Amino acid sequence: QVQLVESGGGLVQPGGSLRLSCTASGSPFLILDMSWYRQAPGKQRELVATITSGGNTNYADSVKGRFTISRDNGKNTMYLQMNSLKPEDTAVYYCHVILSSRPRGEGWGQGTQVTVSS
Closest by alpha carbon to 1, among 22, 25, 23? Predict the structure, then answer.
């Protein structure tokens, strides 16, 4: 239904910054909520941040004040600006979208690795 391509992951030192991007294509439906999830080794996938089509945002407590989610609806692209990174932010980060189809469709990206280490 939708193809999601993520980019921007990598290795960064503690205290550093990274910016993730996720671009959606191939769907005839509107993109409603866009979210970033992450999954660390041996842990369950967790929600990091969500942004609605209207621009409302929600963050996990662990990233509040450090991460900023944004989107460019014209480009069907979502961003995650990650500042003051910590080793515990190390994970594979996944892009997720909900579509306006009935019933609601969704899509997942392939994931991008973020490693925070000195």
Answer: 25
Pairing, β 10-12 against β 112-116? parallel
How many CB atoms within 10 Å of residue 2? 20
Torsion 69-51-86-117 (CA) sign: negative
Residue 57, helix vs strand vs coil: strand
Phi, psi of 90 (to 5 degrees): -60, 125
Alpha-carbon distance of 84 to 66, in angstroms, equals 6
Residue carrying structure tokens 């609601």? 104
pLDDT in tens, 54-112: 999 999 999 999 999 999 999 999 999 999 999 999 999 999 999 999 898 999 999 99
Element housing 15 (H / E): none
Burial label for 102, CB within 10 Å (0-12, 13-18, 19+), is exposed
